[in-house]
Design brief:
InterPro entries: Bact_Polysacc_Export_ATP-bd. The chain has three helices and no strands. The protein is an all-alpha fold. It has one domain. α1 crosses α2. The protein starts with a helix and ends in a 7-residue tail after the last helix.
């Protein structure tokens, strides 16, 4: 799962509609500071990046 996919998944879990997530995507990416790595699989993220994105820990 990429960072972008993770944002959509977490937004959906939080009850946001897809258009809402799309509208706020730039703001979310800016806040998390992961713009350069947005399409990189989250399992390659550092622990700090994972926390900022609020994604589940990658499987070991």
């Amino acid at each position: 799962m990429t960072g972008r996919e993770n944002i959509y998944m977490n937004g959906t879990i939080m009850g946001m509609r897809r258009w809402e997530i799309t509208r706020k995507l730039d703001e979310i990416v800016e806040f998390a500071g992961v713009a350069k790595y947005l399409d990189t699989p989250t399992k390659r993220y550092s622990s700090g990046m994972t926390v900022r994105l609020a994604s589940p820990s990658p499987p070991i």
